Amino acid sequence: MYLILTIIGIVLIAFLLIRIDKGIDTSYIFRAFLLVSFFLWYVLPFFLSIIGYWGIIELITDTSFDEYLKLNCFEVWFYAIILFVFTFSKRFISTNNNTFFVDNPNANSVALPIMLIFTVVMLIYNFIYRFDYSDVNEIENAEGGVFFILNVFNLFIQSYIWICIINREHPHFRKLFIIIILAYLAYYILSGSRIYMLSILWLMFFIKKEHILSHKWLYFIPIASIVAVSLILLPILSSIRSAEEAEQMNDVEQITHAVFDQLNIKLNASGYTTVLITNDGVGFAGTKPYIGSMLKFLPRSIWAEKPTPTSFNGDISGTPARRIPFILTGENSTYNVGTSAGLVSLWHGYYSVVLSILLSVMFLWILCRTLASKSLIVNAIGFMLFYFPQLVMTPATGDNIIQKLFEVAILFGIVYFTGMLRLYKFE
After folding, report:
1. How many CA atoms, within 13 angstroms, populate the side-chain half-sphere of residue 112?
2. Which of 146, 153, 162 is nearest to 111 (CA)?
3. What confidence tier does 95 reach under pLDDT thresholds 50, 70, 90?
4. Where are the alpha helices (DSSP H) in 19-129?
């Protein structure tokens, strides 16, 4: 029964996502990102699991296949309800607005070179001091600090560069933009973040979008080749990152099994999150994750014991991505996993399921509106909220949405009060 219900839910979500931009004015990447995110985190791991690749996740989580089907069904319909509510809300929310933001060209002519210098300096710093995956992900290094505040600005600048590439803006900086993006992709991939291999395909698409769409077959072989190489690299990079011996891949069958296993290990967020429900139970986390998120930018000089955002126990070990490995291994170290919004909300409690649905609908509207803006800066804020290329914020838990909105509210305030944005009103 759960298998059939999940398939029905997946088909329904796909239908709603294909039509999600109908009747609203937004960027094409709004729908594109949502569709790719849905395929990566919902469709692909589910079908890998039901065709025989659940065993590797069961070995890690000790969750039975039947229990996975039941909880994954909840996850799928959690997302379906969000999209239903969003689609229904179009009837009541007007997209016409006589007030909007525009970039201040005088201020931005000065700000852009400063931003580019800042992000290059951060890139050099990352290569020198944050290249070791294990060291960077040690739990004592994962708490907030000056670097993490600076990294928020750095992610915004990277998002701005991506938006300039997508919208063909600042053409005299175009080559520099591409070089910076490629350098960051090299850093992310070589330091262990395998999912950034997807960004190579995105970059190719954004640069050659019109040509690719008009000459699809011409690009089929190079794109397919990049995808094939990226997939084969998954188990190899995984063994390098974990300092383990690489799997034997002497023939096509062994290569296929190794690749599919690694895909499911990387993408099956709901599979990992079942551990929170089967071990901790519904409502275990309570309201503390929300309290931490709402107080994210309260200085620790005011409250030294301020709870960590999204954490049930007030520190980094209580966040879902760290709690799951602790349940599985009994220790907190470098291990962290992907988590799914619906099951984490259930872990908070039933109140959070309802709250996360409502906040996710609001979040979709924010993404839609920011990407439709006439301002590149506002576009970059929307791009940043998608958490590219992971695309893990659609849907998201309410506490995670709250902390991300606080981040962009501060960014928005800075760019507005420094004169980089202007509020324009027409009659």
Report:
1. 20
2. 153
3. low
4. 28-38, 44-48, 55-61, 65-89, 105-129
Question: In this structure, are residues 35 and 79 in contact, taking their beta carbons and an 8 Å threshold?
Answer: no
Q: Which token pair is 385?
A: 């909220």
Task: Give me the phi and psi of 243, to 5 degrees please.
Answer: 60, 35
- Distance, in Å, from the CA atom of 37 to the CA atom of 267, rounded to the nearest integer, reads 10
Q: Side-chain half-sphere of 119: how many Cα atoms within 13 Å?
A: 25
Burial class (CB in 10 A: 0-12, 13-18, 19+), 420: buried
Q: Answer for the pair 198, 191: CB distance below 8 angstroms, yes or no.
A: no
391 has which bridge partners? none
Token pair belonging to 166: 């997508």
- Tell me the angle at which helices 376-385 and 350-372 cross, rounded to the nearest 10 degrees: 150
Let me know the angle formed at the C-alpha of 312 by 340 and 404, rounded to the nearest 5 degrees: 60
Nearest to 421 by CA among 202, 119, 107, 46: 107
Give me the residue label for tokens 């560069």: 161
Q: Residue 23: which residues within 8 A CB-CB, separation 6 or more?
A: 90, 95
Structure tokens at 202: 């995105």
For the ranges 3-12, 29-38, 217-226, which has the lowest average pLDDT? Answer: 217-226
Give tens-digit pLDDT for 111-164. Answer: 899 999 999 999 999 999 887 766 666 655 555 567 778 888 999 999 999 999
The beta-strand segments (E) located in 207-328 are none
Strands 99-103 and 421-425 come out as antiparallel
Q: Which long-range contacts (CB under 8 A, 24 or more apart) does 402-406 make?
A: 402/290, 402/293, 402/294, 402/359, 403/292, 403/293, 403/296, 403/309, 403/310, 405/363, 405/366, 406/293, 406/294, 406/296, 406/297
Q: How far is residue 325's CA from residue 336's CA, in Å, rounded to a whole number?
A: 6
Q: Which residues contact 142 (CB under 8 A, 6 or more apart)?
A: 316, 322, 336
CA angle 90, 96, 98 (to 5 degrees): 150
Taking CA atoms, 72 is separated from 9, 41, 178, 376, in Å, by 11, 11, 39, 38
Write the DSSP assignment of 326-391 as a string of letters: HHHHSS-SS------HHHHHHHH-HHHHHHHHHHHHHHHHHHHHHHH-S-HHHHHHHHHHTTTTT-
What's the CA gap between 389 and 119, in Å, rounded? 18
Give, rounded to a whole angstrom, the gap between the first and last alpha carbons of the chain. 56
